[in-house]
């Protein structure tokens, strides 16, 4: 193992090696959670016409100010119907929410503020009527050509409603990273099988795949291999040559054990890694190959907590960068003091409540059960005495 | 319209009418984001055996304390292999991370802390060795039979890893609510079509469907109807009789306009609603029928911001309750003072940053463009003078 490098340096090395993925087109109905690659612009003003915002009558303020309190109703302007014309100042047109404002009208009196009598609307005495009241003016929310959503934005419900409204039914989004996961270990069996006394069931594929899928950060394929160097070498060769893979994730086999074949074989196939060993807990044996013509290789330690910590701290931010995500880093302040004695960066799970986090260090890197109910991982510098209120990065 | 009822009362009436949906079984691979209906218990201790946590040698502390600093290596205990026996106190067994601890051994010396010579391990001078060091004791994280994840928990990556590890490959989760959405309006056309001057494109289906899908709170079907009372009545009848629908959502047609057919027709078909009109902004005309033998009916106002506000404040919490979600209500404190002059409850979008929220009131209930970049809605009581730091509920 090379000398340990600081966790900050490991993050920089990885980040510098990443390129943004190309864009692809998806339909509006399949764009939820994806990252926009091309700005969405307004095709028309928003709203596109002076839009009635209340059921009532449309009138001319000029006449109203002259003292007109009796209006002849000359028709009904429905939403979705062509704009009518008021014609004379003493006229009124019944209007419905969503309808275009009739020509020459410049105020709406709501339906509950007048009486109808023999085809006339008689506004109640003393009501106040202001210029353009209950009218959503054309272009008041945005002008044709305005950028409404910038590339790099995540498409949620608000954004897809905007896209629909401007007719953006085919959206350019960044292609999802393709991740191939190789797990190794003679002691792990499929979750559906019954383990012997010295076996355990495989949990890494569920953990890693769900973590990536939950945030829509990529597509994951998986294979498991026994601790057999020939089989591992063959699988690594295939995975490294497969141009379909953007990223290769391995779990385990990178420490100093006799049967830790993964790191030696990757070195044989790819040469020395960018780093192998990071001054952090958990996840010290973590190694990374930037792979110019091959997928990038994240070789994660095999303990379940180490897997989750390094996934959160290194892999998820990498996927976000490849996806072109323009997003402020998430941070939250500590609810209480936290002292971290070790000369290593701590990558530790937290629980968030009312805008503050409490750190929940697992008892050891195998204690994945304690991760239930935690909300993610944060990062503590070596030898840190942090006071309540200190803002920490979340991954 | 009946007299307006307070927003808190509207929430109570809806909540009291909701029943939890039945459970269904999904496979582990399809359980992400679902709500667990039956506790997940440990089938074995966690870890299931005294588990080696370091590559190194396993030794007996009894002999070590007697001064033994030279160990004959009698074999290698791999992960996934049957437990070996140390036999004699001066023996050592090479062990790999993840392996079962050999019988009679009670400490691990890490591989970097001894030298190998002629089949013997010679620990470095002065190293400290503690009882059970680098051993993950059987049952130390949990005992067989322990409840690991309670019913009502949302299944994220941590939870699915735990499920995999205990062999829970078929999971009981609550069935997703089935929501049928009926939008109405002559003025709205499909997003793929080009509107005339007085038309707009339909955005409600994208907004509502994505909002529900993003949080995996239900399955949505949709149909759009023109402002034609016969067509609306027929569609309502069908939707109300369809036992496949748990919830019916309508947008628009519930105000006092001439072409507001939805509310009158629902009253004709279902009788008077639980309420029609809530003292809130936006979303005042909101109506609700609890539908004993029919789907529950949420009739939302048609303005885009009103739709999002009432979806967040009433519909999403209802879906969570039907899904049996046991989750603390989310809250965050205000970043700055906020004064709300109106005698109505405000349902307003916010942006969250570093654990605090800033409220971003839209300029009007048509201004859906301003929702881009906001993180959800919060709720402000009538006539509220709120100081920075005041904790508000998030929906």
Instruction: Tell me the Rg of chain A in angstroms.
Output: 31 Å
Oligomer: homodimer
User: Strand pairing plus helix content of chain A: what structural class?
Assistant: alpha+beta
The helical percent of chain A reads 10-25%
Our count of helices of chain A gives: 7
- Provide the β-strand percentage band of chain A: 25-35%
CATH class of the largest domain in chain A: Alpha Beta
Q: How many strands, what sense, and barrel or not for the largest sheet of chain A?
A: 6 strands, mixed
- The spatial strand order of the largest sheet of chain A comes to 7-4-6-5-9-8
Q: Uncertain regions of chain A: pLDDT < 50 for 5+ in a row?
A: none
Q: What global shape of chain A is seen? A: elongated
- CATH topology label of the largest domain in chain A: Molybdenum Cofactor Biosythetic Enzyme, Chain A
Biggest interface and which pair forms it?
A-B, 108 and 108 residues
Write a structural description:
The structure is a homodimer of 395-residue chains. With 395 residues, chain A is α+β, with helices and mostly antiparallel strands. The first copy, chain A, has four domains: 7-21 and 176-322, Molybdenum Cofactor Biosythetic Enzyme, Chain A; 25-45 and 141-174, Molybdopterin biosynthesis moea protein, domain 2, CATH 3.90.105.10; 51-136, Beta Complex (Molybdopterin biosynthesis moeA protein, domain 3); 331-393, Beta Barrel (Beta-clip), CATH 2.40.340. Chain A is 19% helix and 28% strand. Chain A contains seven helices and 28 strands. Chain A has helices at 7-17, 61-65, 157-165, 204-214, 229-241, 262-270, 304-322; strands at residues 23-27, 40-41, 51-52, 56-59, 71-77, 91-95, 107-110, 114-117, 120-123, 135-136, 147-149, 170-174, 178-184, 188-189, 200-201, 219-225, 247-251, 275-276, 280-281, 287-289, 296-300, 331-333, 338-340, 345-353, 356-359, 376-380, 384-386, 391-393. The first copy, chain A, has a six-stranded mixed beta sheet. In chain A, strands 16-13-17-21-20-18 form a six-stranded mixed beta sheet, sandwiched between helices. In chain A, strands 19, 24, 25 and 26 form a four-stranded mixed beta sheet that branches. In chain A, β20 and β21 form a beta hairpin. In chain A, α1 (7-17) runs parallel beside α7 (304-322), α4 (204-214) runs parallel beside α7 (304-322) and α5 packs across α6 (262-270). Chain A starts with 6 loop residues before the first helix and ends with a strand. The interface between A and B is large, with 108 and 108 residues.
């Amino acid at each position: 193992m090379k000398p340990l490098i600081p966790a900050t340096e490991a993050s920089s090395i990885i980040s510098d090696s990443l390129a943004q993925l190309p864009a692809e087109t998806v339909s509006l109905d399949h764009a939820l959670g994806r990252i926009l690659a091309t700005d969405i612009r307004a095709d028309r003003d928003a709203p596109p016409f002076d839009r009635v915002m209340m059921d009532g009558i449309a009138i001319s303020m000029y006449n109203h100010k002259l003292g007109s309190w009796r209006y002849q109703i000359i028709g009904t302007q429905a939403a979705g119907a062509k704009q009518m014309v008021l014609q004379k100042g003493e006229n009124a047109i019944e209007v419905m929410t969503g309808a275009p404002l009739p020509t020459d009208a410049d105020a709406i009196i709501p339906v509950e503020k007048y009486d109808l009598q023999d085809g006339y609307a008689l506004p109640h005495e003393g009501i106040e009527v202001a210029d353009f009241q209950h009218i959503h003016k054309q272009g008041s929310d945005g002008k044709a050509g305005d950028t409404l959503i910038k590339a790099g934005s995540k498409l949620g419900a608000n954004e897809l409603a905007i896209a629909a409204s401007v007719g953006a039914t085919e959206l350019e989004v960044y292609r999802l990273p393709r991740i191939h996961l190789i797990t190794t270990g003679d002691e792990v069996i499929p979750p559906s099988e019954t383990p012997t006394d010295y076996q355990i069931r495989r949990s890494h594929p569920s953990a890693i795949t769900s973590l990536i899928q939950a945030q829509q950060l990529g597509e994951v394929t998986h294979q498991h291999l026994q601790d057999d160097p020939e089989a591992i070498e063959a699988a690594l060769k295939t995975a490294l040559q497969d141009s379909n893979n953007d990223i290769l994730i391995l779990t385990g086999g990178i420490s100093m054990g006799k049967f830790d074949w993964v790191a030696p074989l990757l070195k044989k196939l790819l040469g020395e890694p960018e780093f192998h060993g990071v001054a952090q807990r958990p996840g010290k044996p973590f190694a990374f190959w930037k792979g110019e013509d091959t997928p990038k290789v994240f070789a994660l330690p095999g303990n379940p907590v180490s897997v989750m910590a390094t996934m959160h701290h290194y892999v998820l931010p990498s996927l976000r960068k490849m996806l072109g995500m323009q997003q402020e880093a998430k941070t939250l302040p500590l609810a209480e003091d936290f002292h971290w004695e070790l000369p290593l960066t701590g990558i530790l799970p937290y629980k968030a409540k009312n805008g503050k986090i409490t750190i929940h260090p697992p008892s050891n890197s195998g204690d994945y059960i304690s991760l239930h109910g935690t909300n993610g991982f944060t990062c503590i510098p070596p030898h840190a005495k942090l006071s309540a209120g200190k803002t920490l990065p979340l991954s």
